[in-house]
Amino acid sequence: MRRPLVLGNWKMNGTKASNAELIEGLKAAAAGVDSVTIGVCPPAVFIAQIQELAGDSNICIGAQDVSVHAGGAYTGECSADMLKEFGVSYVLVGHSERRTYQNESDELIAKKFKATQDAGLVPVLCIGETLEEREAGKLESVITTQVNAVIDAYGIEAYKNAVIAYEPVWAIGTGVTASSEQAQEAHALIRKLLAAKDAEVAAGMQILYGGSMKPGNAAELMAMEDIDGGLVGGASLVAADFAGIFNAAK
Ligand SMILES: O=C[C@H](O)COP(=O)(O)O
User: Fold this and answer.
1) Could you read off the pLDDT of 146-190 as tens digits, one per residue?
2) Cα distance between residue 46 and residue 205, in whole Å
3) I need a labelling partner for 48 at 20 to 30 A (CA). Which of 60, 189, 220, 241 fits?
4) Which atom of ligand 1 lies at the shortest distance from residue 214's CA?
5) Is residue 231 in contact with ligand 1, taking CB distance under 6 Å?
6) What EC designation does it have (predicted)?
């Protein structure tokens, strides 16, 4: 039985004041929720603040990105060990916005995945196809390439302590959600790819859905066999909406 995981990706949003209000609301809503792992991924500059605000609550902290380097002359970068010092347990790698705007390659993303694991943190590998790729019938080949990038570099063992988030690019921030059948099809495909290498890794992998997940569609999505939670963008910025989603995962 895979434990549901719901992560809020705040992207580049928040102020010290709005963060305090949001975390206060989330702590109240999450108190007593013990069957779902709940986390927030604030911008790096706010991680220390969120660590303090979250205190010993059941809100975990994730980072939105990490350096492939352990330290040194890499201006603007932040290492996995630095994130760990501030209570981070999950790190998003390969989000489509970074693939698009920072031109992150599968090779670089695999290195970030490994750097995260080497620090004892859990990488959340984000994958998904664009609308153009879907319409061209390339869903399977895109997902296969993105999943295999880590296996080719580090072997299937690398997926033993990791999470995968399937986020169809066309559903991110658009209000258009993949139907539960479309999402399930992609999640089942991801699990099948893993199972071809290692059945145990495949069975244990938490595969999250991301892309316009809202309180109104979360229950139906997360009821699907291979959907184990959500990576939530916009709706994670409103405590009541995010709570509606993690409560739907129970
Ligand atoms: O990381 C989260 C995803 O990009 C989903 O964002 P969204 O819920 O705003 O569509």
Assistant:
1) 999 999 999 999 999 999 999 999 999 999 989 999 999 999 999
2) 29
3) 241
4) 8
5) yes
6) 5.3.1.1
Query: What ipTM did this prediction achieve?
Result: 0.99
Q: What is the mean pLDDT of residues 211-222?
A: 97
Using alpha carbons, select from 194, 134, 122 the residue that is nearest to residue 168: 134
Atom nearest to 234 CA in ligand 1: 9
Find out whether the beta carbon of 7 lies less than 6 Å from any atom of ligand 1. Answer: no
Place of tokens 């209570």: 87
Contacts of 207 (CB under 8 A, 6+ apart): 163, 164, 165, 166, 187, 190, 191, 226, 227, 228
pLDDT grade, residue 1 (50/70/90)? confident
Active site residue 225: no
Q: Is 214 exposed, middle or buried (0-12, 13-18, 19+ CB in 10 A)?
A: middle
Does the annotation count 167 as an active-site position? yes
Of ligand 1's listed atoms, the one at least distance from the Cα of 172 is 10
Residue among 104, 129, 167, 187 flagged as catalytic: 167
Give 202-212 pLDDT, tens digit per residue: 999 999 999 99
Structure confidence by residue, pLDDT tens digits, 21-30: 999 999 999 9
Question: Is there a contact between 33 and 250 (Cβ–Cβ < 8 Å)?
Answer: yes
Burial of 135 from C-beta contacts in 10 A (0-12 / 13-18 / 19+): exposed
Indicate if ligand 1 lies below 6 Å from the C-beta of 4.
Answer: no
